Hints:
Blueprint: E1 7-12, H1 16-22, E2 39-42, E3 48-50, E4 55-57, E5 63-65, E6 68-74, H2 83-86, E7 90-97, H3 111-114, E8 120-122, E9 126-127, E10 139-143, E11 146-151, H4 160-167, E12 177-180, E13 189-191, E14 195-200, E15 204-212
Parallel strand pairs: 1-12, 3-8, 4-15
Antiparallel strand pairs: 1-2, 5-13, 6-7, 6-12, 7-9, 10-11, 10-14, 14-15
Amino acid sequence: MRPLPRAVYVAALNRTGVLEELGEALHRDPYQQPPRAPILHVKPANTWSESGEPIPCPPGVAALRMGGTIGLVIGREARRVRPASALDHVASYLIANDVSIPYQSHYRPAIKERCRDGFCPLGSVVPRDAIPDPDRLEVVIEVDGVIRSRSNGSDLIRGAARLLAEVSAFLTFAPGDVVLLGEPPDAPLAGHGSTVRIAVAELGEIVNPIVPGPE
Length: 215
């Protein structure tokens, strides 16, 4: 069984394609421009699950957004690290699904939309030395056996090393922390009764059914 993480941080709006999806909304009040620094949200312990466990879809929600991505598992303390040495602080990599209820506003923390029970399935870890470059990994998202998304690090605004360096300037990562690189553009939707598979050739897969959540 995969050890439980210490904390899970997720890079939001970390792909050029995701910013393009937002379009003119990025230029409206209150910010009036795309983000200049890393934006993070947190997946608390109630969201963590494993492959095979169901993802509950809350009542009244037709479908959930499947944010398949790569996770960096911190192996030793990272504080104000440089990009050139940032990945030395990573112990391993894993697949993750940053599940969310679709929403429009990015100006407030999306706790109700991203922090529901079971909204962060995490895969088994693969040692860092087995992965030459995490930014080159391809993430495939399937819904009911149909490929709905393929993405790699080609459109990451901050790749793994740069992300760790910039965030560790203000946040100290400890062993066991997990940092997710961020969902792809056009992340697919999946509703009740669907089965979602997130696969990365070098990391394996996680498979989770979508089930009705409790009233």
